[in-house]
Amino acid sequence: MPDAADALRAPFWLRDNCPCAECRDPRSGQKLFQITELAADLTVAAATELAGHLEVLWSDGHRSRYPQRWLDAGAGDDGRTERGKQLWQAADFAAGLPEAHWSQYLGDDAERAAVLRAVRRCGFALLRGVPVEPGTVLAVARSFGYVRETNYGALFDVRVEPDPTNLAFTSAAIAPHTDNPYRDPVPTVQVLHCLENAAVGGDSGLVDGFKAAALLRAESPADFELLVRTPVPFVFRDRGTELRADRPLITVDGRGRIREVRMNNRSIDRLDLPAERAEAFYAAYRRFAAITLRPELQLAFRLDAGDCLVFDNTRLLHARTAFEPAAGSPGGGRRHLQGCYADLDALASTLAVLDRRAAALDELQELFEQAGAAEYLGEPVTQAAHMLQAAAQAERAGAPAHLVAAALLHDVGHFFDGAGHGSVTGRELMQGQDNRHSDTGADWLARWFGPAVTEPVRLHVAAKRYLCAVEPDYRAALSAASEYTLQVQGGPFAPERAAAFAALPGAADAVAVRRWDDAAKEADHEVPGFGHYRPLLAALLADPR
């Protein structure tokens, strides 16, 4: 739906996507009604385009408000198809592979997001310096998702075995392939961690299966369509396992976009087709396989101890050259990798939350730099300077991170109206109308932060009323502007309300924030800027998983 006019021509679509709290759970975003509960004769009674919003009054009396940025955004997709990906050949990485050091990946959200985004866009990324300890591959998988346990176990060792059940556990060359095509659903991410590589040979290789499939589509559309339409029996059997999945070599979505490649010659079982169709299929299959073996598509590199490769197993074909022990080398020239499987949905979820976290910090910083430049309720400081001074007070007092954050963010509610819109910077309060900024701010921050941060924000006005009730000297020290807002906000608590406040679990934290708030009104006082607090805020945001 590109604009408001188009959206209004699809009333059920628009009404089904109403974002209000009556229609969607504020925390999960899940819908609170069934589509069949909408009246069959539902129509738009009135529509008004406001600044940045479309407001709709429905024939059933419900009122919806849609941000223009949402109307403009489009639905996107799940990121699994060729759309939006970089289809590559080996020369595209002449300047280097997408990679990061393990310590930076763990310690920096932006670095971790860049690695995961590379897996989404290019199909792979390489982590360097991963500790050479058995089992660490599981920690890599858990850094973005969950380990998928299979018949090979939670993790598996890729090394020469005396009684191998899979060619991967030999020293033979392995042609480009995807793993576990006989499994439904197939593991969508593979992680390979090199513990040791002193062998001659044993280099790794990757081929972009989506690029190969796209080349087949361009060079021989009929062969492409045949591979898309023909299910292939992929089978694996050993003493304790028998797995089968009938899937095409190339899968497309409903719009014809490449979504998955399964390519594993070792695992294809008997294909039951009439002779003519079998010949056509094998001609197409051979053409596709030949494309995957083109030298320009094969990216070759060597995994050394501490290297860990994360890749999309529904897109990339991986390979290795044959290897043999190197005479006189340490450890006898062994090659030992450990691997595990995970899934793209968890990786995509982690990336989305990391991006949300970065966007949240950017949004907060923008508030400080723009709306925060306004004066602060008649005091000799700006709104931003006041909040930064409060945070600096908390930091100097040795307060825990959640209270430093609460002090920093305690007045963000002044920037919004009661519905969380606009930038009003507390004008209503100074005009004699309580804007309930503590509740508005806490509710707005709850999108990102837990109660340890939001509840001191919610209670910091109540803490002022409490302190005025129980500490006469406190009230006497209030500035003229603060005394005025005290009256607008209801004045000191009566004794019973003061006692009820003191009994609240978060009362002590709210009082601490309040005292820092009161001390944060010095003109031209130098304190750290918002950027100083970004790492602290990032650590307090919910973990991606």
Explain this structure.
- This protein has 545 residues and is of the alpha+beta class.
- It folds into three domains: 4-73, NE0471 N-terminal domain-like (2-Layer Sandwich), CATH 3.30.2020; 90-350, Clavaminate synthase-like (Double-stranded beta-helix, 4-Layer Sandwich); 370-540, Hypothetical protein af1432, CATH 1.10.3210.
- 37% of the residues lie in helices and 17% in strands.
- It contains 20 helices and 19 strands.
- The strands form six sheets. A six-stranded mixed β-sheet has the order 4-5-16-8-19-6.
- α11 packs across α19.
- It is elongated.
- The two termini are 32 Å apart.
- Strands, count: 19
**Can you count the helices?**
20
- Low-confidence blocks of residues: 328-332, 418-426
CATH superfamily heading of the largest domain: Clavaminate synthase-like
Indicate the radius of gyration in whole angstroms. Answer: 30 Å
Helices and strands in order, then pairings?
Blueprint (H helix, E strand, L loop, with lengths): L3 H5 L2 H6 L27 E7 L2 E6 L4 E5 H6 L25 E3 H6 L1 H13 L2 E5 L7 H7 L13 E3 L15 E4 L11 E9 L2 E2 L2 E5 H11 L1 H9 L2 E7 L2 E7 L2 E3 L5 E4 L13 H18 L6 E3 L6 E5 L3 E5 L2 E2 L10 E8 L1 H26 L13 H14 L4 H9 L17 H4 L6 H9 L5 H20 L1 H5 L3 H9 L6 H8 L4 H12 L15 H7 L5
Parallel strand pairs: 4-5
Antiparallel strand pairs: 1-2, 2-3, 5-16, 6-19, 7-17, 8-16, 8-19, 9-18, 10-15, 10-17, 11-12, 13-14
Helix pairs in contact: 5-10, 7-8, 7-9, 8-9, 11-12, 11-19, 12-15, 12-19, 14-15, 15-18, 15-19
